[in-house]
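Exercise 7. Given the encoded structure of a 440-residue chain, write a plausible sequence.
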């Protein structure tokens, strides 16, 4: 047995840790024999000195094994267990769409998602805006719904990867979140604990992404793909753009409305949202063996949408988890509206050449749609809609976005926060691609 401080010292001095040393450290994180300050020191040593592929695989597996690992054998599923995970974005509701779409194509999607983090929205907070939706069912109900409906989206349970939960909480308050090795181990340990057959990662790139540059996003993609496959999980990553919100809205209940529109009305599928959703879902079907090629995958997914099969899976998931049975027919009745709606009027005419997507996400947090502290309550109805897109021409006085706020003061504050996030120019600038590429 090694002394905890010796394990930390080795990492501090840039020596390679053995898998058994990492496993021992992680066991101590769970049984409490490793203190908060030792976790913080370890995290800072990893932040500065990084980890080799072998070390990162060992950390991922140790975190996975720190708690319950789901077993799907007893459920005798007639299709692959597949999932998607994103590094976080703004106005990004792809999980709500592709989970039901993939389920309608024969996949089984046990999606364990997170709350909003910093400026990014969380799928869990969006679902929590639906009255009575149970985001924390016990494992047996979760697995039963996945078996019966094909998809269930819930929050991380206390039993899954508890080591990651403690390490993450300490990283969050010690400026050590942005370590590629620890982000990789954190995400993958939870996905491995769900015993997936394949994972598709959505790695965001741009002003609203978690990683600051394209190169860093690519490095994270490479790390997750290599470590995922090294740990026995078939993993691929799609790099997608986050220089502007994916949908024209951001905010919890507002994004649920947008998801319902997308699933039920072919004319209300915003192009970039559709492109990214299809790129990710296509990859999921292909890695799960549900399609031979991209064309076949896309055609299956389009028919799941057009036939209403995906919308039906979404409705089934909502009611199986306690939400209203008629949510898709009567969203107005259940989702509520913020009382004040105010436009952010353009001060001049021009083409939208830049959107500070991170600032836009932070404005939603300021309105009450996200948290400043972990214990904060969320105002589900607030946020933005009708957000302009890069390349769009706007006349002077036309809205750049509509703000949905709890009161007039909050709305006016958001207007002044948001106006500088949009840059307009007399000539149009190049518009970034929506999907950059695949890392396998
Ligand atoms: N999401 C996670 O689950 N873990 C991280 O470390 C970062 C984002």
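Solution.
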């Amino acid at each position: 047995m090694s002394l905890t401080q010796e394990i930390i010292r080795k990492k501090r001095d840039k020596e390679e840790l053995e898998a058994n040393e990492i496993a021992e450290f992680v066991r101590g994180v769970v049984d409490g024999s490793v203190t908060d300050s030792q976790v913080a020191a370890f995290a800072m040593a990893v932040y500065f000195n990084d980890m080799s592929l072998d070390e990162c695989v060992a950390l991922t597996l140790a975190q996975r094994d720190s708690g319950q690992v789901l077993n799907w054998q007893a459920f005798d599923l007639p299709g692959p267990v597949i999932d998607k995970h994103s590094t976080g974005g703004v106005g990004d509701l792809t999980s709500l769409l592709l989970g039901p779409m993939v389920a309608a194509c024969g996949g089984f999607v046990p999606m364990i998602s997170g709350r909003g983090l910093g400026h990014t929205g969380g799928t869990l907070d969006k679902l929590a805006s639906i009255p009575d939706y149970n985001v924390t069912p016990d494992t047996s109900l979760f697995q039963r719904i996945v078996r019966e409906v094909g998809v269930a989206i819930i929050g991380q349970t206390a039993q899954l990867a508890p080591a990651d939960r403690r390490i993450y909480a300490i990283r969050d308050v010690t400026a050590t979140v942005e370590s590629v090795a620890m982000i990789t181990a954190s995400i993958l340990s939870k996905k491995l604990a769900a015993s997936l057959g394949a994972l598709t990662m959505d790695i965001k790139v741009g002003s609203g992404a978690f990683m600051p540059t394209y190169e860093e996003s690519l490095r994270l993609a490479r790390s997750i793909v290599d470590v995922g496959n090294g740990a026995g999980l078939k993993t691929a990553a799609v790099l997608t753009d986050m220089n502007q919100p994916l949908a024209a809205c951001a905010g919890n209940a507002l994004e649920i409305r947008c998801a319902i529109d997308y699933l039920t009305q072919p004319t209300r599928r915003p192009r970039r949202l559709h492109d990214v959703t299809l790129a990710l879902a296509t990859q999921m079907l292909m890695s799960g063996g549900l399609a031979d090629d991209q064309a076949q995958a896309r055609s299956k997914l389009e028919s799941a949408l057009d036939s209403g099969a995906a919308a039906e899976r979404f409705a089934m998931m909502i009611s199986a988890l306690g939400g209203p049975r008629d949510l898709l027919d009567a969203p107005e009745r259940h989702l509520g509206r913020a009382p004040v709606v105010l436009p952010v009027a353009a001060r001049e005419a021009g083409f939208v050449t830049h959107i500070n997507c991170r600032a836009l996400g932070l404005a939603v947090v300021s309105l009450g749609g996200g948290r400043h502290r972990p214990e904060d309550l969320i105002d589900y109805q607030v946020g933005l809609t009708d957000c302009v897109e890069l390349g769009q021409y706007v006349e002077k006085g036309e809205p750049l976005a509509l703000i949905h706020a709890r009161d007039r003061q909050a709305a006016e504050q958001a207007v002044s926060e948001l106006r500088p996030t949009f840059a307009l120019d007399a000539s149009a600038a190049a518009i970034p691609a929506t999907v950059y590429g695949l890392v396998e």
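Remark. The radius of gyration is 22 Å. Students should compare their own answers with the one above.
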